[in-house]
From TrEMBL:
Residues 599-672 are annotated as: Disordered. Keywords: Repeat, TPR repeat. It comes from the Eukaryota. This is N-alpha-acetyltransferase 15, NatA auxiliary subunit. The keyword Repeat applies. Residues 617-626 have a biased composition (Basic residues). Pfam families: NatA_aux_su (PF12569), TPR_2 (PF07719). TPR repeats lie at residues 100-133, 396-429.
Length: 812
């Protein structure tokens, strides 16, 4: 927890408030012991502090001393003995409910358990008895910003500001509270008043913290919409801003939005000269020159840069975006020649955005195929060049490009022939084996894809990226054991690969592993991986706690605001969406197909068994029991080893007392045998409804859950939200048909005023023609004729109908 140490480190915020103000005053000897207890806690000398606590409490006159009991509980909590800690702290509170020290410690314990609301209540109780305690106010403000109680945070920072107006952190925290509440004017005025209290310095001085403060102040002006003042503020303080790149980028952007395009153009040209590979600078220059919608002017602009900077690829690449026909071919020829000469593996990835134009695709294909002929027969790129003017590797990269080209177009047979030619040319190039694996993957042969990716891995066993890619391919082929073995080559020794990958928050592996378990029917294991991903996001959110004081101290204010905004939408990340979608699908399956009670099914009647069969059965049962005992012993040893590792890690940590309590172990059997799968599914659905509201899958999953719970209003809500996102989605049409049948069959049994309301809302959705078209679709036929590959986890009907319009029939 490190609470007092954190405060003692913040010298600029003032000295720590002591917590030894007790009603029952201790004699000098015991009081000296109590002061030593505080110091021992700060220095993490927990055993010595515990001995001192016991020494005071062993005295009959002070056996119920409230503050000593509270400190003993705090030290025990830091040592991981949480139950004893709570018992002592509660005992101390019972002895003196008016002790701010006891309430403070109780708040610290609640905070360590991630019970932030309870921690706030405890801190407020402490402040009732000591309203000006700086340390408690700081703790309260940190918890408030952590749970985004912004109004409470503002009030607490205001109180801290009144108590410590000479400290910089008081001003900064107070201003930031108003900024987060979108009261930009007040936030700016507070920072401006703070700057006036500082000693002015003559001339430009390298002061990073002051520079960051000025940039943050400018951010507030920009957020408020007062761009003219933001420009003026930047220019006036330009000599004090150390980050000149950020200064130029911000000023150029402000010039664009205030109509001063000429000034913006000048700055963007300087930025391009400094970093000619930054595409954002070119975009800014396009806006400054007002040529965003004029392809011809863009070509002229980028051509001027390509002449000045021949080694820079970006201007030459952007010309290809805005040219067509002969002009496109004229610029494509030197670009391809340069890339093949240098041997650029990502050439196809670079040009793939051009494949939205079918004419450009044909031009690229003809050009590269003609280059292959010339390279193969004459070692040159074009007929007008000298023989053997191209390097020998150019043909290899041309083959590689065509393999990716045809694979992208879906012509896998031709793609395979080109990659085989490339492998015959240079059988040691890793990219070729990866390309072949990708082609097999696109054909649906995931086992062969994994085999060839493993071949690529063995060419360079020290490459972590290839190793990870290989593991992913094995997971997609449902070979979980082999994927774990491959990942184990880069995990920590002494720990199982799965445990170490979970500890490192390797979420790409866990999401793919969850899907593999789902495809193989291992529902409990799949849910375990999904819950592990969910816990990672909880840990990431909790990890921001330490930054609430650090960023104010180090003046990384702009980054801190970005961090807060990121954390607010953290669960919108694709990793969480993927894991949540998998978990919901598994829970829906478990609801529809509950797992049988194996213990009852496995009970065998021995009445009619012969002696020989009975003996065989007993031998088999004995072996099974022995095997189970061995597995249990191995599991216990692994758990003990893991616990020892966690304890050693906690003892070695600089902030060993700031660890949350260990989470409940995730047991696959327990997860898959839940009594209420829909309740568990909703726990994953709710974050999606908040942070993945724009994804139609969120609302389709919601419909599936609520339809099983017989919630017509929530079913209606789900289909209405889905219609706003994609009213042509095939599975949505299926749900609309099901929903209409559901309401028709149950509307008479619904209580008033539900029937009338549902009919009026459904009338807005179901026109006569739309409903008839939906009704004519033969869903069973579609699902039976267009099944996905068994390795795909998506619903078959979704892809089968991706291009199907209402009233159309799927092709045979």
């Amino acid at each position: 927890m490190g609470f007092w140490k954190e405060e003692s480190c913040q010298q600029h915020e003032g000295n720590c408030e002591t917590m030894s103000a007790t009603k029952v005053s201790l004699p000098p000897k015991e009081n000296a012991h109590f002061k030593r207890i505080l110091k021992c806690y700060e220095k993490k000398h927990y055993k010595i502090g515990l001995k001192l606590c016991n020494k005071i409490l062993n005295e009959p006159a002070f056996s119920d001393h409230a503050e000593t009991l509270a400190m003993k509980g705090l030290i025990l909590n830091a040592m991981g003995r949480r139950e004893e800690a709570y018992a002592d702290v509660r005992r101390g509170l019972k002895k003196d409910l008016r002790s701010h020290t006891c309430w403070h410690v109780y708040g610290l314990l609640q905070r360590s358990e991630r019970k932030y609301e309870e921690a706030i209540k405890a801190y407020r109780n402490a402040l009732k008895h000591d309203p000006n305690n700086i340390q408690i106010l700081r703790e309260l403000s940190i918890v408030q910003i952590h749970i985004r109680d912004l109004r409470g945070y503002r009030d607490t920072r205001h109180q801290l500001f009144n108590l410590k107006p000479a400290q910089r952190a008081s001003w900064i925290g107070f201003a930031m509270a108003y900024h987060l509440l979108n009261d930009y004017d007040t936030a700016y005025k507070i920072l401006e008043a703070f700057r006036k209290t500082q000693n002015p310095r003559d001339g430009p001085v390298y002061d990073y913290e002051n520079s960051e403060l000025l940039l943050y102040q400018n951010t507030i002006l920009e957020d408020s919409g007062d761009l003219e003042s933001a420009v003026k503020h930047l220019i006036e303080n330009s000599s004090y801003i150390c980050d000149k790149t950020t200064y130029s980028e911000t000023l150029a952007n402000l010039y664009l939005h205030t109509g001063k395009s000429k000034l913006g153009e000048q700055i963007y040209r300087k930025l391009i000269n400094a970093n000619p590979d930054n595409y954002a600078y070119y975009q800014g220059l396009e806006k400054a020159l007002a040529v965003e919608d004029n392809p011809r002017e863009k070509v002229i602009l980028y051509s001027s840069f390509s002449k000045d900077k021949k080694k820079v690829c970006l201007p030459n690449r952007m010309i290809l975006e805005y040219t067509e026909g002969e002009a496109f071919l004229e610029h494509l020829r030197p670009y391809m020649e340069s890339a093949l000469t240098k041997g650029a593996p990502p050439l196809f990835t670079d040009l793939r955005p051009l494949y939205t134009d079918s004419n450009k695709v044909i031009t690229i294909q003809k050009l590269v195929e003609s280059m292959v002929i010339q390279l193969r027969d004459y070692s040159r790129y074009f007929e007008d060049q000298e023989v053997k003017s191209a390097p020998a590797s150019a043909l290899l990269w041309a083959y590689y490009y065509l393999a990716q080209h045809y694979d992208h177009l879906g012509n896998h047979e031709t793609a395979m022939s080109y990659v085989d030619k490339a492998i015959d040319h240079t059988p040691t190039l890793i990219e070729l084996f990866m390309c072949k694996a990708k082609i097999y993957k696109h054909t649906g042969d995931l086992a062969s894809a994994a085999k060839w990716m493993d071949e690529a891995r063995e060419l360079d066993t020290a490459d972590r990226y290839i190793n990870s890619k290989c593991a992913k391919y094995f997971l997609q082929a449902n070979d979980i054991e082999q994927a774990t073995t491959v990942c184990g080559k880069f995990t920590r020794e002494g720990a199982t690969p799965l445990d170490n990958l979970n500890e490192m928050q390797c979420m790409w592996f866990q999401t793919e592993c969850a899907l593999a378990y789902q495809r193989t029917g291992q529902w409990g294991e799949s849910l375990k991986k999904c819950h592990e991903v969910d816990r990672h996001f909880n840990e990431i959110i909790d990890d921001q706690y330490d930054f609430h004081t650090y960023c104010l101290r180090k003046m990384t204010l702009r980054s801190y605001v970005q961090l807060l905004r990121l954390e607010d939408v953290l669960r919108s990340h694709p990793f969480y969406f993927k894991a949540a979608k998998c978990a919901i699908s598994v829970y829906l399956h478990l609801y529809d197909h509950p797992l049988k009670n194996q213990s009852k099914d496995e009970q065998i009647s021995t009445d009619n068994m012969s002696p020989a069969d009975l003996k065989k059965m007993k031998n088999k049962q004995r072996k099974a029991r022995k095997k189970l005992e061995v597995e249990q012993q191995a599991a216990a040893a692994a758990a003990e080893k893991k616990e020892h590792h966690l304890k050693s890690k906690q003892n070695a940590s600089e902030d060993g007392d700031n660890h949350p309590p260990p989470s409940e172990e995730l047991l696959p059997e327990k997860l898959s045998s839940t009594q209420d799968p829909l309740k568990e599914a909703i726990k994953f659905l709710q974050p999606l409804q908040s942070f993945a509201y724009d994804k139609i899958d969120t609302h389709l999953l919601a419909y599936e859950i609520y339809s099983r719970k017989n919630k017509p209003l929530l079913m209606l809500q789900s289909v209405k939200r889905a219609l706003k996102i994609d009213d042509r989605h095939p599975k949505l049409h299926q749900f609309l048909s099901n929903f209409q049948e559901y309401i028709t069959s149950r509307i008479s049994s619904l209580p008033d005023p539900l029937p009338e309301f549902l009919q009026s809302e459904m009338a807005k959705i179901y026109t006569a023609k739309v409903f008839q078209d939906i009704k004519d679709i033969n869903w069973d036929s579609i699902e039976s004729k267009t099944l996905f590959s068994k390795h795909r986890g998506d619903d078959s009907s979704i892809t089968a109908l991706s291009d199907l319009k209402l009233g159309d029939s799927p092709s045979n």
